[in-house]
Amino acid sequence: MKPTLMWRAATLGMMLASCAGKHDTGEQPMDEGTIRKDLEVIAAHRVFFGHQSVGVDIMEGVRELNAATGSTVRFAGATSDSLPAGPWCADAIVGRNGDPASKCAAFAATVDRLSRDSLELAVLKFCYVDIKPGRDIDSMFREYERTVMGLKQSHPALIIVHATVPLTERAPWWKRAIRKVLGREETTDESNAGRARFNEMLTGRFGGEPLFDIARLESTYPDGTRCGFDAGGRKVYSLIGAYTRDGGHFNDAGRRLAAAAFVRTLAGALGEKAR
C-alpha cells in the first residue's frame, strides 16, 4: 500500500509542547496534491544540490515524498561519470565541513561539469558546522558571493537558488548555567548568532532571488512563532528541539518538513523561469 502524506502532527505537537511552552501544536497535515505538483515540476528539469549531512536528510525526505506521491523525479549522484538522459535531480557531498571555501570550489566545479549536460538549477547549502565562534563571516560571504557571481557570468541561463545556513538547537538553561559556573564557554548561542549574520547578508544581497530559507523553517513553530532568544537587543533564532535528533540534524518530522519546503522552493524557481 502506498504511504500517505497526511501525516498527523499529534506526536510532533506533544514534543513541541513538552519543550517549548505555549505554542499552537494542532494538526499540521501536508498537502499531498501540492507536493505532487511541485515534484512533477522538478521531474521535468535538471537540478543539482550540493550539500553535506543536513542535505542528506533533506534528500532522503525528498525521495520519501517522491515515492509517497507516486511522482516521477529521477534521482542521480552528481559525481557519476554518466548521468541519465533526460531530466534528473542530482546531488552530491561538496567540499569539507568547516571549510566553506572548499564547498564553494567543489560546487562551482560540479556546476561547470553538469552544465555540459544542460543543468538548469543549482543550490549550494552550507552546514551549521561551517560557522562557529571565530569564523570570519565577511570573508565567508565574499567567497560565496564571488562563486555565485562567477557562475552567473559563465552560465547566464542557470537558476541559482540560495540557501540560508541551518541552525542548531540551543543548549538547555541548566547546561548553560553549569558551563557558566565552571567558567566554560557556551558556544551554541554565539554560533547561531554568526549564522544569523551570514543569513542576513545573504538575504540582503540576493533577497530578490529564489531562496530556500532553512534557518527560518527549522526555527518556526506550527503556530508561526519562532524559537529564539535576545542577545544584546538582537533576536537570535535556534533550531526547534522537536525537529532534530541530535541538536543539528533532522529527525523524521523535521526531515519531511524541510523536504516539502525544499521542493516548493525549487518548483517555484523553475516555474518562474517557464513564465
Structure in a nutshell:
This protein has helices spanning about 10-20, 30-45, 55-70, 100-115, 135-155, 175-180, 190-205, 215-220, 250-275; strands spanning about 45-50, 75, 90-95, 120-125, 160-165, 210, 230, 235. It is α/β, with parallel strands linked by helices. The strands form two sheets. The protein has a six-stranded parallel beta sheet, with helices on both faces.
Q: Residue ranges: pLDDT <50 for 5 or more in a row? A: 6-20
Please, how many domains? Answer: 1
Major sheet details: 6 strands, parallel
The backbone outline, from C-alpha atoms, is: globular
Provide the CATH top-level class: Alpha Beta
| Biggest sheet strand line-up | 2-3-1-4-5-6
- The percent of residues in helical segments reads 40-55%
Tally of individual helices:
9
Q: Give the mean pLDDT.
A: 88
As a percent range, the share of strand residues is: 5-15%
- Cα separation of the termini: 37 Å
Would you report the number of β strands? Answer: 8
What Rg, in angstroms, do the CA atoms define? 19 Å
Specify the CATH homologous superfamily. SGNH hydrolase
CATH hierarchy: architecture: 3-Layer(aba) Sandwich
Q: What class would the helix/strand composition place it in?
A: alpha/beta
Oligomer: single chain
The SSE string, one letter per element, is HHEHEEHEHEHHEHEEH
Query: CATH topology, which one?
Result: Rossmann fold
